[in-house]
Structures are given as C-alpha cells and as structure tokens.
C-alpha cells in the first residue's frame, strides 16, 4: 500500500483524537455528561451516531461479501434490519427519551429498568448489567479482531500491531471524552461510511460499463444471483429478516434515544438516520454485485469475498482516496467498539460502583471510575482478541440475538404497556437469554446439531420472552403509585400537541 494511503489514515486518526480532546473539555465534568452527553445531542449527531455504532465492519465487509457469493438473496438481512430500525425509531425512541428522564433521570439501560419498576431488590439492574458487560466485552473483542485483520490484509502489518493500533486510538478518545466524544466521532465516521458506500459501487459500475453491463456480467456467471428468492425458503427468509428484531434490545443503539436533545428532535433524527441507512445499505449491496461483475470482466483475483470492498478501493482509486476508503472500514469498526466500550463502562460505573460500593461518590470520582473501566474493558477485550484464529467473531450474531431476546420485548412492553410488572420484566429477560443460549448450544437434533441451524435463535427467544412478560405480569398485581404515574406522564407528553 502506497504512502498516500498511510497519510489519509494518519489524518483520520488525528481527527478522532482531536474530537476526543474537544469532548474532554466540553462534557466530562459530571457523570451525566460523561456517559450520556448531558442529553444534548442534536438530531443529526444522534442519528448518525446510532447508525455508525450499529453497522460496524459488517456494512463494508460482511454484506458486500455475502452479495458477492450469493447475490440478491443475501439482501433479506438488510431488508429486515431496515424495517427493524424504522420500528425502533417509531416505537422506542420518543418513549424511551421521555421515560428515562421522568423515571428519576435514568442514565443507563439497567438504571432505566430499575427505576421504571422501582425494583428494591436491584435484581433487574444487576442481571441486565452482567449481561451487558459480558456480551459487550466479547462483542468488543470481535471488533478488535476485525481491526487487526484489516491492518494485516491491507498493509501487511502484523496482526498484533493492527489490533493494538485499533484499540489504542478508540480507547484514547473514548476514555478522554466519554459519550460526547463517541457520538461526535460516530458522526464523522458515519459521514465517511456514507461517502465510501456511494463512491465505490458507482465507480465500479462505471468501470464495468454501467448497470446493464453489470447485470449481463452477473447473469453470465449465474442468473440466479439476480433473483431475490433464489434458494430462499420461508424459514430462511424469516431467520434473515429476524435480525431486525434485535434493534429493540441493543443498548449501544437505544442509548442514543436517551441522549437526544429533546423528544421533539426524534422525528428529524429518524428521517436523517433512516435516509443514511437506506443509502448505505444499497451501497453495500451494490458493492458486492458490482465487485462480482468487475472481477469477472477483469480477472481480479478475490480469495476472500469479504475483502471485495478493500480490493476495489485499492485498484480503482488514487492511494490518497484508497486511504480514505480504508478509513471508512476503520470508522465502521471503531464506531461500534467505542459505543460498546462506553456502555460497558457506564454499566460498571453507574450500576455497580455508584450503587453498591460508593453511593455518595462525588461526580469527578465517578467520571474517573468511568475512564478506568473503559481501560479495563478494552484490555479484557484485547486479551480475548489476541489470537486471530479465535472463535469470538461467531459470538457476534449470538450477542445480537441475546440482547434482542433478553432486552427487546422488555424495552417495548415497558414503554407501551402500563400493566407490566417487575416480575414480568425479570421473567422476560431470563427466558429470552436462556432460550437463545439453549437454541445456540444444546445439541438436541440428529448428529448433535443445534436448533440454531434450523432457525435464527432470536425468533424463539423474542417470542418466548414476550409471552413470559405478559403471562407473569398478568399473574401479579397491576403497578400503582409512582410507577403508574410516571407511565401516565409519559403518555400524556406523547399525546400533547407539539409547539
């Protein structure tokens, strides 16, 4: 890789660290500022931050690679994700923004569960915090693996050095600037991803000769590659689209709804976020198809389909532009890592340290603990990621399903159903997580196969969690007092005419 690419990447790292220093000065004087940005994100920053932290390297590596291999039939996951993200904005975003503020100013997802139901046993807070810290440590390590492999494949750098560079830069700006730094860097990273996923497929299409020539080249390989239903069954389509159910329970995404400046900003946030998502998903799908046509017409050797974005960036552009495009992959990886680091840190600080160890800790102490826990989680994730052959990447889909099943129905019903109880919330969280684990690991089918080989584990997990919440809630007494009053206050504000 030529020096121009290194210059572009160097500038990218400088910008990320500069944002971290800016946020350090502006928003880290108290714990609310450090872990939630003081609830003053504008709709543009909040929406692109949610999108960038969501998509990770899957957007630029996994999805184009799947399209390269399987054609349009791989688009079902993207369709499911788009529908799920839109439903998340419509159902969860305005309600969660209001409820977390009115429910004694909850700052984290476990804090919200605790205060929403006034759980004096603290079981909701403890169990949800443990789930977040464990799954996000594994999730973060998978991002570090991707960063290490990117430097190894694109620059010939040793995997360990690539991992440390990725971890070092992310940890630096997250540790310094907290939530505001993460959100602002996510905004920049989202813009980079947007430009990259428009530029690469358009240039590749142009080089092949346009849309018609691209389609002709793909048909000459296999006409089925342009058929959305090629090889699809009802179960496979449901499994793919069920990825969209995961959105309702992803802490690193829905925390952006808690941080947006006002509930009045949510419609604008939704419009920006969904427009960004639509364009980038189409760009990712187009990169895979255009890359397949380009490789077929030019003889480009593609040993790993997931590197098609990297290969096109290298052969089609000036080295300075190639560096920018590789920065887009790093942006996708780093935006997710930083969000997961901060959510894990916030949970350790606000849900463990401040609740069980130092109830009267001053704000500066809590911010310092937040920084220490960012470092601790990053180091733990780095240790897990050190072996490039580890299987931690396999846990990404399981973590998505685990969060979606354990937290998704709980979040939706806690915001929309007044009759829900604390015991119902506990039952739903436990049943959802247990179902995903059983579906993933129990060898109950012939030849020791897992149920996850039949249908994606989030489907049974989400359904059973939802049913457990409803059944157990109806078995108990309806909430009264502050719990019911807060719920009513949220509904009243949602129905109030907008100024």
UniProtKB/TrEMBL annotation:
InterPro entries: Na/Glc_symporter_sf (IPR038377), Na/Pro_symporter (IPR011851), Na/solute_symporter (IPR001734), Na/solute_symporter_CS (IPR018212), Sodium:Solute_Symporter (IPR050277). It is a multi-pass membrane protein. The chain crosses the membrane at residues 6-24, 75-92, 123-141, 161-184, 191-212, 232-255, 276-295, 315-337, 366-386, 398-417, 424-442, 454-475. GO terms for cellular component: plasma membrane. Gene3D superfamilies: Sodium/glucose cotransporter. Keywords: Amino-acid transport, Cell inner membrane, Cell membrane, Ion transport, Membrane, Sodium, Sodium transport, Symport, Transmembrane, Transmembrane helix, Transport. Belongs to the sodium:solute symporter (SSF) (TC 2.A.21) family. Catalyzes the sodium-dependent uptake of extracellular L-proline. This is Sodium/proline symporter. It comes from Brevundimonas basaltis. The lineage of its organism: Bacteria, Pseudomonadati, Pseudomonadota, Alphaproteobacteria, Caulobacterales.
